[in-house]
Every structure is written in C-alpha cells, then in structure tokens.
Design a protein that fits this description.
The chain is of the alpha+beta class. It is 19% helix and 28% strand. The protein is built from 6 helices and 17 strands. Strands 7, 8, 9, 10, 13, 14, 15, 16 and 17 form a 9-stranded mixed sheet that branches.
C-alpha cells in the first residue's frame, strides 16, 4: 500500500486544484475538505495540502465517492440584472430569481458577489470556483463600483468624511474607497468599494440620514457595464481561460 510520502513525491497537480476542478468549490474551500478528513487518494486518507495527484492514474474520493474533474469549459456569465430579481438559486418566497432570466444550462453557476433584490446592474456568475473566489472575496482586492440615486443629499463633504473614515453599523465597520457626487447630477453618487458587506451602501446612506432610491453596479475589476452594450435582463458569456488580472 502506498504511503503519504509516496503521494507527495509524485508528479502531478496539487490536490486542492484537482478538487476544485472536480467542482467541490474554490481551492481554499477544498483545503478545508482535506483538513477535515473528507478526502482519500487511492483509498488512503490524506490531510497534507502539499500532496499532488496524477489525474490519469490516481483515484480521488470525497466522502467515499470517486470524484473526477469537470470537463465542461469554464466560463464567466455576465448578466445585467434588473431590479426585483433575487440573487438566489431558489427561494419559496420569490419566483423571480436571476436564474429565471437564464437558460437551464446555467442553473448551477455560482454567483460571484451578490446584488440585493432592489439593486440592478453588473452581476457575474461562473462555473469556475477559483474565479468566483477571486471576484467575491475582499482579500483579492477586486473593486466594485456603483451609481447611487438618493432621496436627498446630506452633502458631499459630510458623506466623503464618514464613508472613508468608516461607519459602525450592526457591529460592522462599513467603509468606501471612494465616494463622489456625479458632476451635474443632483443626489447621484459614484461609489467604489474594496469589499462588499450585505446591503452595505444602503446601510451607510441610511446611517447618514438619507435613503437610496436606486442602486446600480457598473463595474467589477476592469469589467465595465457601459462598455458591454448589454440590455437589462440580458447576458453574455466569456471563456475564463483568457482572463488575467481583470478583477484585482
């Protein structure tokens, strides 16, 4: 029987990448599966994150079930989300989810950075677990940019000071990297976030004494909605193999 050292000495790919390719989540998520003792290679329990596997010869199992890489091409789905659609695969209280706008083929795609029910704009989905992690997780520094229409304007200087210093709300510190009044527009702000917490922008403006009438995400990383010529409710697909550092 092979030992753990035999696995580590083989040529091949790192086990976290292999498991991610099998559709078990991002590489970071699959590392948790390994450390929790849910992965075996050739029948041997492994907990070493440095192990490499050869896809052609090694048999890798998750919770006793053999797993193999997903052979379908990895793609990014770019959706111009309308307001009133929930970012959820299924919800008994809402018939209108974003997946009702998409063909059945994409029903299992991961949502990389959600928008709330009443927000609209650029939404990214993918079947690539690593890419979803890079888009959504703040540690990768992926900027998100928004246009926000307010009920009334508390004043640009006051907003800039509080948003960049940080607002304490429900035990969380909420900050913006940039906030600026759109020239020539009353009560319309352009905001850039380095990380996005649940309903963050709405919460920040509520704490500042006003409310959001409309919120549109217009950019994620270097992907800009304006340049895509994409109508609300429509989507397009991109092959992720061509991506470099578009998101961070």
């Amino acid at each position: 029987m092979e030992s753990k050292d035999d696995f580590a000495s083989k040529e091949g790919i790192r086990i976290n990448r292999y498991l991610a390719d099998c559709g078990l989540g991002s590489r970071r998520k699959t590392e948790e599966l390994i450390l929790n003792g849910q992965i075996t290679v050739n029948g041997i329990l492994v907990k070493d994150l440095g192990i490499r596997v050869r896809p052609d010869t090694d048999v890798v199992s998750f919770q006793g079930k053999v797993v193999r890489p997903n052979v379908e091409p990895k793609v990014l789905l770019i959706l111009n989300k309308p307001a009133g659609y929930l970012c959820s695969h299924q919800d008994k209280f809402h018939e209108k989810t974003i997946f009702s706008l998409l063909p059945e083929t994409y029903k299992n795609f991961k949502i990389a950075g959600r928008l709330d029910l009443n927000s609209r704009g650029l939404l990214l989905l993918t079947n690539d677990g690593d890419l979803a992690q890079k888009i959504a997780h703040p540690s990768y520094g992926s900027e998100k940019e928004y246009l926000v229409w307010l009920r009334f304007d508390p004043g640009e200087k006051a907003i800039q000071t509080s948003f960049q210093k940080g607002i304490l709300d429900a035990g969380e510190i909420l900050r913006a990297k940039m906030v600026k009044l759109v020239p020539g527009k009353d009560c319309v702000y352009r905001i850039i976030l380095g990380e996005g917490k649940k309903r963050q922008i709405r919460r920040m403006f509520h704490a500042s004494g006003t409310s959001v009438l409309d919120l549109q995400r217009i950019r994620v990383g270097l992907i800009e909605l304006e340049k895509l010529n994409l109508e609300e409710g429509k989507f397009l697909l991109k092959d992720t193999s061509g991506f470099g550092n578009e998101f961070y």
